[in-house]
Amino acid sequence: MTHKVTIKELAAKAGVSVTTVSQILNGKSNRFSSDTIARVHKLQDKLNYIPNFNARNLILNEAKSIGVVVPNIGNPFFSSFIDGIQKVSRDFEYLPFNFSGDNDSQLEEYYVEQLIGRGTNGLIIASSSITKETIDGILKKNRIPYLLMDQNPLSDGDQIRTSDETGGHLVANYLLSMGHKRIAIVVPSNATSNIRLRLTGFREEVINQGMDPEQIITVINSPLSKTGGFAAAGAVINSEVTAVFTVNDEMAIGLYRGLKNKGIQVPTDISVMGYDGIDLGTYVEPELTTIQQPISRMGELAAQLLINRIQKPNIDRQVIELPVRLIERKSVTVPKK
Ligand code: RIB
Question: How far is the CA of 78 from the centre of ligand 1 (A)?
């Protein structure tokens, strides 16, 4: 077994006290001579001494950690989002602790409480569970910086959002422009408010174009997952629509498989349009037409705004809305009849 060098050993070799080593390695070295500082750093390199983060934490009272709670880490949307968070956190030497609530609000709440209890510096919450009571009673009371986004319904504190309503308009406009007049929307029955806004935008666009949403839209409820999309295939076929909008890309990919199993071809028989722009959409056949959210950028900015807030708690409220755009690929065509 290899021996882990301790701060005591390093101090003894350098001929200084443990406190001196600790202060020098934590950047509080102004009261020591340049010789002592150089000796300690040189020995640190030579002995491969890795400071114990918990001890450092006690000295500086700074964990430099960010808690991140997402609804479902299995969805590539959230892994790209976390990737963005990691990039920026690394630049600022913060460590993100990521948790997936698996769409279970009790589990999400558990992670939030655990993160707070373990002294995390701030939280990014993209899941829907955290309530106003938790924010007012715990986060605000203890001055814990936080950023709510995506599936979280509360418009409180710093925020990154995307224009979900515009996204809905873009989907409807595109499908109508291709000549579709019977369109299914596959959406979870308990859709979060960001997703409901996509539906609002869709309906508004149908109305703006002088049509009756009741005549055009068939709503099919199914869970927000590949399995949910797969399970919706039968209802989609029965509804005799010519096009489907699934409110995320994962559902679209599941629906592809469900339709294929039932002998339906996309887009010849039924056009399918997703939402998110996960990279998997370019690897399925046919490539998925979708609305691109700037996912990794959302993560980067979430980390950036949270770290700004941790470092300067009194700055003005920070709110950024990012645009979405239509990506035209191969899964939508003109209807047969
Ligand atoms: O795919 C995950 C979906 O849930 C995305 O559309 C994202 O915006 C989130 O709400």
Answer: 8
Statement: the pTM of the whole predicted model exceeds 0.70 = yes
Q: How many CA atoms lie within 13 A of 166 on its CB side?
A: 12
Q: How far from the centroid of its chain's Cα atoms is residue 213's Cα?
A: 31
Structural domains in the chain, sorted by start: 7-51 (no CATH), 63-162+295-323 (3.40.50.2300), 164-293 (3.40.50.2300)
The first and second tokens of residue 194, run together, are: 């960001």
Helical residues (DSSP H) of 281-327, grouped into ranges: 295-311
Residues 118, 67: Cα–Cα separation, whole Å: 10
Q: Are 222 and 251 in contact, with CB atoms under 8 Å apart?
A: yes
Ligand 1: residues whose CB is within 6 Å? 75, 77, 150-151, 194-195, 248, 250, 275-276
* Angstrom distance (rounded) from CA 206 to CA 169: 8
What's the burial of 336, exposed, middle or buried (CB within 10 Å: 0-12/13-18/19+)? Answer: exposed
Structure confidence by residue, pLDDT tens digits, 210-249:
999 999 999 999 999 999 999 999 999 999 999 999 999 9
CB atoms within 10 A of CB 255: 29
Indicate the Cα dihedral angle 162, 163, 164, 165, nearest 10°: 170
Q: Which of 157, 176, 200, 179 is nearest to 306 (CA)?
A: 157
- Residues in the chain, how many? 337
Ligand 1 atom 3, closest CA: 248
Give start and end residues of each alpha helix (H) in 153-281.
Answer: 164-177, 193-208, 213-216, 226-231, 233-238, 249-261
* DSSP 8-state symbol, 17: -
Between the CA of 2 and the centroid of ligand 1 the distance, in Å, is: 46
Q: pLDDT tens digit string along 120-159?
A: 999 998 887 777 777 777 778 778 899 988 888 777 789 9
